[in-house]
Amino acid sequence: MLKKQNRLRGEKDFEKIIKKGERFWDIFLFLKVIKNNLRIVRVGLVISRKVSKKAVERNRIKRQLSEILRIKINEINSGYDLVFFVKKGIKTRSFSEIKESVEALLKSAKIYSERK
């Protein structure tokens, strides 16, 4: 689970990113990024019922994404707000495929600095 300071909360924050954020997409993920005036990265996850009608499946996907981002949070350049939108095809993907997709999106947004 992401630390509380790294979670995006509040409807106004989400609306701002959705309206003004830069868009990046992958096969089963869509990312909106906007610069914030903070020295931290904040992340929000959006998983609609179109992905799955079962809350159990949506929560599983949310936990997987949250864990990937918790591990990668230190490799993301600070000062950004991110919102990940999940598309339908993600249910059948493995954890490693989702991880690769997240990394690819962060790299295409040019906010990811891979550390070893």
From TrEMBL:
Pfam families noted in UniProt: Ribonuclease_P
InterPro entries named in the record: Ribosomal_Su5_D2-typ_SF (IPR020568), Ribsml_uS5_D2-typ_fold_subgr (IPR014721), RNase_P (IPR000100)
UniProt-listed Enzyme Commission number(s): 3.1.26.5
HAMAP family registered for this protein in UniProt: RNase_P
Protein name from the UniProt record: Ribonuclease P protein component
UniProt organism field: bacterium (Candidatus Gribaldobacteria) CG07_land_8_20_14_0_80_33_18
Principal EC category: hydrolase
GO molecular function: 3'-tRNA processing endoribonuclease activity; ribonuclease P activity; tRNA binding
Highest taxon above the source species: Bacteria
Catalytic activity: Endonucleolytic cleavage of RNA, removing 5'-extranucleotides from tRNA precursor
Family of the protein in this entry: Belongs to the RnpA family.
Gene Ontology BP annotations: tRNA 5'-leader removal
Family annotation (PANTHER family): RIBONUCLEASE P PROTEIN COMPONENT
Known function: RNaseP catalyzes the removal of the 5'-leader sequence from pre-tRNA to produce the mature 5'-terminus. It can also cleave other RNA substrates such as 4.5S RNA. The protein component plays an auxiliary but essential role in vivo by binding to the 5'-leader sequence and broadening the substrate specificity of the ribozyme.
Keywords assigned by UniProt, alphabetized: Endonuclease, Hydrolase, Nuclease, RNA-binding, tRNA processing
Assembly and binders: Consists of a catalytic RNA component (M1 or rnpB) and a protein subunit.
GO CC annotation: ribonuclease P complex
